[in-house]
Amino acid sequence: MEKKNATTVCLSGMRKISTLVILFFSFSILSGQESDKEIPALKDRLFYGGHIALQFGTITNIEIAPIIGLWVLPKLAIAAGPSYIYYKDMYGANDIWGGRTYAQYVIIRDVDKFIPLGVHTSLCLHLEDEMLSLDSRLKDSNSVSGRRFMVNTVLGGLAISQQIGRRSAINLMILWTLNDPGYQVYSNPEIRIGFAF
Fold first, then answer.
1. Is the residue at 48 inside a domain?
2. Domain containing 135: what range?
3. N or C: which end of the chain has fewer CB within 10 A?
4. What angle do CA 5, 6, 9 make, to 5 degrees?
5. pLDDT tens by residue, 126-153
6. Which of 83, 82, 169, 58 is nearest to 120 (CA)?
């Protein structure tokens, strides 16, 4: 069996996410997006955000993952950004870095219109492709320090978005790994809380 290098794996991952974004885009058009409305200016469709994770104790896990995104259609957003994780346990410390790209489709803009509870949240489908570079010691304790391997993980699930300002929101995501990356980086499901503004 031929061993894939990091560039081949990265290009393969980018092809996957490109296909997924096109599928989301097609679904949005077929779902009856109104095209006769005036398209907002680019600066009004851009958004920023991401998430930070902190865990201290026997296992230390610090993650920083900023993103920049664009509302392509009123119900479809795409975003991308770098990712850095510092992970330390009883076996040593590791730096994990890479990037992610995702597409998010709004299924319900305001849940209160369907279930009148006074909670104005949005329900979204979330699809993400992430490429991370890990130290090979995480996979094999006999490996030489400094050697790295790539892990491509595709995640999918639901996101609940709560507006906390005119352009800002807090997001709760519940994601599952949709592929077999060869090395599991996340638990199943992966629960994240992030911000967008």
1. no
2. 6-31+69-79+100-196
3. N
4. 90
5. 999 999 998 887 777 666 666 888 999 9
6. 169
